[in-house]
Every structure is written in structure tokens, then in C-alpha cells.
Amino acid sequence: MRQLITHFTDDDLYKFTMCCAVIDNYPRTQVKYIFNDRSNTVYPPGFAEMVMEQIKMLESVVITEEEIAFMRRKCYYIPVWFYSFLKGFRYNSKLAKVWQDESYHLHIEFEGYWSETILLEVKVLAIVSELYYIVTGKAHDLDYKEYYHKSAEKARRLIGAGCYFSDMGTRRRASYAAQDTAIRAMKECHAEWNGRFVGTSNVHFAMKYDLTPIGTMAHEFVCAIAGMYGPLMANHIAMSKWAGTYRGALGTYLYDTYGWRIFSLNFSEDYANLFKGLRVDSGDNFHELDMITDKYRSLNINPSTKQIIFSNGLDVDEAIEIQDYARNKCIPSFGIGTHFTNDFHGIKPMNIVIKLISVKITESWSFYSPTCKLSEDKGKYTGDIDTVRRFLEILQLPE
């Protein structure tokens, strides 16, 4: 089978920025990840072996000088030493286990040093998604010419509504070609209105189309810290470590790992001023925005100066509705994923994730500490039931 991932930077920017922060702050930390298919998909026999074959193929994928030059130019905030690490980085298939159970459900686990495993997640999810459509024959039904026009129309509508938006669809794309087609269509959309297609989270496509790579961090960073030190101060520690690594270029903070309440208690005036803004990835978008703006005002910060990125499984209609509500309250921006890269007629997007579930501070510890993600939507909770209940109790949240 042909190799699906052939570019080192065919990955989301936040994996690289987090990897850098991990090496800087937690170089000896070890972690475990597990795959979760929320749709409980039954995969074809032998699918696990094909996924493993693709992971082994990643061992031949190395960063190029051209990719490093692009990242140094566009991602100026990443310390120069990190590119020396990337030059020597090699994917290790031995860190991954892939199998199917008797019902042909798919299982994937990663275990190893955090700095070594962190760059597997997005690539493996993209592999699983594209491979599934290939093996089931659905890839033959993907009409890329029609998809170009469909994507261009989405861009025209968003730009016409004044939306600033980016692609965040690598993880569950229908294929490499689908993401390529969507980004090319949006890049070539020359609608003369107030909105703008500002970039993509995928560093490879940002380089291909001379766009800005978009992204800061994922829940994973806060989850690991919570596993090591507990959820009450996890956001505070995460913000502190991020500030130490990136100095003034902190980007937007993803606040909802354990819900708004505990984050708000950790979000002091210094961090509110340091971070460019916040990202809304769960809950009711309008209610979350109102809480955010109220918090900024309580800190004597004008919320209209802060960027709020909305990324909670949005489509074009939802983004336009939020834009109308938020335009005078903050600087709204939108990160749209699956709706951009897997919106073909007759194709059901996969609902798959890979999440960090346990952590140990150094390799000398004899045990892992479990962790979880709670967010503002119970449907997005990850982790085993006992850990979720324990974290809810610690945070004094209802089950």
C-alpha cells in the first residue's frame, strides 16, 4: 500500500509548539495515549495491520531544510534550538500498539517519553481516517472537482460575513487530497469583503500555499500536568510553563480542559494580559463568550482587544451566527476542522480521537498517574470513569 504521510510537517502546528514546551519543561516525563472511536466503528479485517504498516512507514519521514526554513520564518516564536531536535527526530513504531478485538473494533496505544510520542497523534488519526475510506472503497466516490467549488463557496460565505477563519481539519480529513483541495479553494477565493481566510493548522499546507500556520496548544498539555500535579492548579502551571518557553508570544489559550469555573479562578490579570486571547472548544458558544468578556472586564481589560477563537465542531452557518453575536464584543476568529476537510456527499466523517490518559513525571517512577479531560460538554469527556469521577469530585463539579 502507498505511504499516506510523506511530509514531516503534514501535522498540526500545536503538536510542534507543545513538543517544544514539553522538552523545555518536562524532558523526562512519560505518557500513555489511547485511541477512541466515538462511533464504535467496525473496521474491516486486517485494518489494524495496515495502520501499523503506515506507522512503520513514518520512520522514513524526516524534516527537510526547506521545512525548517519555513517554520523559522513563519513561527518566529519557536526557539531555534528546537529545530536541532527536529533534525534528529525519528518516528519509532515500537512506541505504538495497534490491534482489533473479536468484534473488529480498532485499538491503538502509544507509550513512551512525552517528547517522542507527542508527534504521533495527528498523523495516526489522519492515517486511520484516510485508510478507512480507501479500504472500504469510499475513496472512489470522492469528487474533488465538485469539492473545490463547494469549499470555495464556504469561503465566500464566511468572507462575506466578515469572518476570519482557518482550517483545522488534519486529524479527520477524508484524505490528503481533500484537505489540499479545500485549502487551495479558500486560498484562491478573492471575495472583496471584510473577512479573510487566515491560514491552516497544517504546517505542510501552510508552506505549500504560503499561509500562516495557526495554533497554540491542545488539551493534552493541561491534562498531563493535571495527572502530575492535580486539576485544581493545572491551568495555572500550564500557563506559567508556556510563558517561560514562549516569553511574549503566547498565542491563544485553550481554557476548557476542566471547564470554565476552575480556569477562571486561575486566570489572573497577568496571564489575561500575556495571552492574545482564548479558544472556545466546548459548551454553548454564546454563553462561553459572555463569561469570557465578563472575566476580562473584571480584570479591567477591554475584551474587544482580545482574540477569541471558536473551534467547537463548527460549520459555516454556526460560524456566521457567532460572528454576528461576537463582532462587537471581541476579535472573533474561527478554526473549522472536519466541515472543511471531510464534507463529501454520502461520506460520514469519522468521530475518532487519540487522548493522553496517564503520565509519570520521570522514568524513575514505578507507576503512572491517570488523567482525563472534562471540558464543558460531557460528550467530550475522556479518561476512565473512575478518574473522571475523582476529578469531578476534586473540582466540586456535578457528575
Radius of gyration: 20 Å
How many E strands?
12
Number of helices: 17
How do the strands line up in the largest sheet? 6-5-4-10-9-8-7
Quote the average pLDDT: 96
Give the % helix.
40-55%
Order of helices and strands: HEHHHEEHHHEHEHEHHEHHEHEHEHEEH
Largest sheet, strands/sense/barrel: 7 strands, parallel
Coarse morphology: globular
- Strand coverage percent: 15-25%
**Structural class category:** alpha/beta
Please give the alpha-carbon distance between the first and last residues. Answer: 46 Å
The stretches of 5 or more residues where confidence is low (pLDDT under 50) are: none
Features:
single chain, 399 residues, alpha/beta, seven-stranded parallel sheet, five-stranded antiparallel sheet, 17 helices
Question: What order do the helices and strands come in, and which of them pair?
Answer:
Elements: H1 13-25, E1 30-37, H2 47-57, H3 65-74, H4 81-88, E2 96-100, E3 106-113, H5 114-117, H6 121-135, H7 144-160, E4 164-167, H8 176-187, E5 196-200, H9 203-208, E6 212-213, H10 219-229, H11 234-246, E7 252-254, H12 260-266, H13 269-274, E8 277-280, H14 285-298, E9 307-310, H15 316-326, E10 331-336, H16 338-341, E11 352-360, E12 369-370, H17 385-394
Parallel strand pairs: 4-5, 4-10, 5-6, 7-8, 8-9, 9-10
Antiparallel strand pairs: 1-3, 1-11, 2-3, 11-12
Helix pairs in contact: 1-11, 2-6, 7-8, 10-11
